[in-house]
Specification:
Layout (H helix, E strand, L loop, with lengths): L1 H43 L7 E2 L1 H4 L6 E4 L7 E2 L13 E4 H10 L3 E8 L7 E7 L19 E4 L2 E4 L5 H7 L1 H5 L13
Parallel strand pairs: 1-5
Antiparallel strand pairs: 2-3, 2-4, 5-6, 7-8
Length: about 190
């Protein structure tokens, strides 16, 4: 009977050793894959844009197009590639489409425009473009960066939801009176 107990104990010890060896191997492989992903992300992190995004400077070949992630609007390159954040392939879009997507997601865009004057050097001017208001001019709710926007008197007007933009288009002056001078407060009804 003692002999059978020793055999059972030996089997349990072997099973535990095999399980811990498998666990250690899986953990090591998991850490290696995590390191590889981190290396890839840091190598590709130069296409993850932060702050004010200058699309014209990203368009190095001046074809009027860039490659942008369908999910992560601020992942932009002038070459085909893969998004280091979500893994999706970057999609080629016009500078205008990239700008629209960035603005709708709440990013700020700086456009570099070249002025061509014969006999003088080209000079670039920058304009910072972003959603001007913090609250919806119709409801007073916070602006949703995913909602449609409208340009009114040179300002990009944001809304709390899809639908408010359509009402705004019908009488923009009426609804602009609902906003404070800086667009941060709702003054209307």
């Amino acid at each position: 009977m003692l002999h059978k107990s020793n055999f059972t104990s030996l089997l349990i010890i072997i099973a535990l050793l095999a399980t811990s060896a498998t666990f250690a191997q899986n953990e090591s492989m998991h850490m290696h894959m995590k390191e590889m992903k981190t290396e890839k992300q840091s190598a590709d992190s130069n296409i993850v844009r932060k702050g004010i995004i200058d699309l014209k400077s990203i368009d190095k070949n001046n074809d009027g197009k860039v490659f942008q992630c369908p999910m992560e609007a601020n992942v932009i390159s002038d070459e085909k590639g893969e998004c280091p954040l979500c893994g999706m392939d970057l999609k080629e879009v016009s500078l205008e489409k990239a700008k629209e997507k960035l603005l709708k997601r709440g990013f700020e865009v700086s456009e570099t425009k070249l002025k061509e004057n014969p006999g003088t050097e080209n000079k670039s001017t920058e304009t910072k473009v972003g959603i001007w208001n913090k609250v919806c001019p119709l409801t007073g709710e916070d602006v949703d960066p995913e909602a449609p926007t409208e340009v009114y008197n040179g300002k990009v007007i944001g809304f709390c939801c899809a639908g408010c933009d359509k009402k705004f288009k019908k009488d923009p002056e009426k609804y602009m009176k609902n906003l404070s001078e800086d667009g941060s407060k709702f003054l209307g009804e």
